[in-house]
Specification:
globular; single chain; 168 residues; mainly alpha
Length: 168
């Protein structure tokens, strides 16, 4: 699923469950970083579409990069959008790393189900045991439902906390 917001569905569901212990922005940044290598292959016509970046080893390296850069990009982005005008919101390092690793590993898992050129366990194995585990149609629906249910839970829980006087 290169360059698709479908990868964000599971992230929205995880955000609903973990709330402030998860950064959806860092997760989303990781999705972008993960698909830079496929973008280069698409533009140049050279290379393996879902190459090293779409293995768990490659994804681990990209998760580290995404956490290190995404923490600051997220804080700056929130400031620019005036959602954090006094720089009060700081993303803890452990949250940045957790969010980036969940983003990178979920990206590999989702793409492993639907792309036959995936080698998620490279360099240890070229096998892809997840390929075809469920249909692409069901995979897309699960990601979409994850987003819808996650958004409903997130906003419903926050609305409830505000009504009880325990939220923002």
């Amino acid at each position: 699923m290169p360059f698709t917001p479908v990868h964000m569905g599971p992230g929205i569901a995880i955000k609903a469950l973990l709330q402030g212990s998860f950064s959806l922005i860092v997760f989303g940044w990781t999705q972008i970083v993960m698909d830079i290598q496929p973008l280069i292959v698409i533009l140049t016509g050279e290379g393996h579409l879902h190459g090293f970046s779409h293995s768990y080893v490659g994804a681990s390296l990209l998760a580290i990069f995404s956490a290190l850069s995404g923490k600051y990009l997220s804080e700056i982005g929130l400031y620019i959008l005036e959602l954090n005008p006094n720089w009060e919101v700081k993303i803890a390092w452990w949250i940045a790393f957790l969010s980036a690793f969940i983003g990178a590993f979920s990206h590999v898992a989702i793409d492993s189900i639907m792309h036959s050129d995936m080698e998620p366990f490279f360099p240890f194995s070229k096998e892809n045991p997840l390929l075809g585990a469920i249909s692409v149609e069901i995979l897309h629906k699960l990601c979409l439902f994850g987003a819808l249910i996650g958004a409903f839970l997130y906003y419903g829980l926050n609305w409830r906390l505000v009504r009880l006087g325990k939220g923002k």
